[in-house]
Design brief:
two-stranded antiparallel ribbon, single chain, mainly alpha, globular
Length: 287
């Protein structure tokens, strides 16, 4: 209820004043304020908007799921024969080895797929296109065993500190498989490394593989598959070497690079063999 205010003339009263309404906003001012709010929101969530508008990540998701699916299937496969604990650790050892290849390829700017696991036969990393040189190919091939040997060494350290035979067995498997993978014959990592040192090492690698199979009486589906792959990949290359063919990329490798790769290769091979023997004969942790 409004009170009446006195008039200037005595005895008279004027009606109450009405509140003055603010002047109406013009349309362009209202629209400008709305646009300012929208612009602020867009700036605040710029990163999210760019991510949603960049559909390239949609092509990466299926590859990631495909890689992880093969990893879990491999764990399940090995767990059927050796239990879940060994299945998980064994697949992780393989994963670390393959990440050595993958990360090295990426560091050199070479596009590569995530590791793909084949139950019973390990895993592989596929590079998109050939490496620019045999030197880079050799470094990327050597990185896998280096990472793998480091992972096996962690298992060996756990075995010595926890005195658990399981970790000694895991370390032995890690060292042994990386040593085997360093045989200088395709399709092993050692074969690609030997291709940058001297392709004639492939002949030595073939004899070493046969000697290992015969001496230790190692037979089975896994060894049969290895022989099939060697027959498909290595034998034609060895025949070419014996015929005097020289890969033009090998001629581009400098003598200094060959010596450096050779020293690194034989050093890593020696560490893998020493780790295999140590984990097999070490009396501090019984298998």
């Amino acid at each position: 209820m409004h009170e009446q205010r006195p008039s200037e003339t005595e005895g008279e009263y004027l009606p109450p004043e009405r509140p003055v309404a603010p002047p109406p906003r013009r349309g362009w001012q209202t629209a400008g304020g709305l646009l300012a709010v929208l612009a602020g929101a867009a700036a605040k969530f710029k990163g999210a908007l760019l991510l949603l508008l960049n559909f390239k990540w949609l092509f990466f998701v299926p590859k990631l799921l495909f890689s992880f699916a093969s990893l879990f299937i491999s764990i399940w496969f090995y767990a059927l024969f050796f239990g879940w604990k060994f299945g998980i650790v064994f697949v992780l050892l393989i994963l670390v080895h393959e990440l050595g290849h993958y990360l090295t390829f990426r560091n050199f700017g070479i596009r590569a797929d995530l590791p793909f696991f084949i139950p019973g036969f390990g895993a592989f990393v596929a590079a998109r296109g050939p490496a620019p040189s045999l030197t880079i190919e050799a470094i990327a091939s050597l990185a896998g065993p280096v990472y793998g040997i480091a992972a096996a060494a962690v298992c060996y350290d756990l075995a010595l500190n926890l005195h658990e035979p399981f970790w000694r067995a895991a370390a032995y498997v890690g060292f042994f498989l990386n040593a085997l993978n360093l045989l200088p014959i395709p399709p092993f990592d050692g074969g690609r490394i030997a291709g940058a040192i001297d392709p004639r090492l492939w002949i030595l690698g073939l004899f070493a593989l046969i000697a290992w199979i015969v001496y230790f009486h190692v037979f089975g589906p896994f060894v049969f598959l290895i022989l099939v792959l060697v027959g498909i990949v290595a034998i034609p290359r060895i025949r070419a070497v014996l015929a005097g063919y020289v890969d033009p990329r090998f001629l581009a490798v400098s003598p200094a690079a060959r010596i450096t790769i050779a020293v690194a290769y034989f050093l890593v091979l020696a560490i893998a063999l020493a780790g295999t023997l140590a984990t097999y004969f070490d009396p501090r942790v019984t298998l």
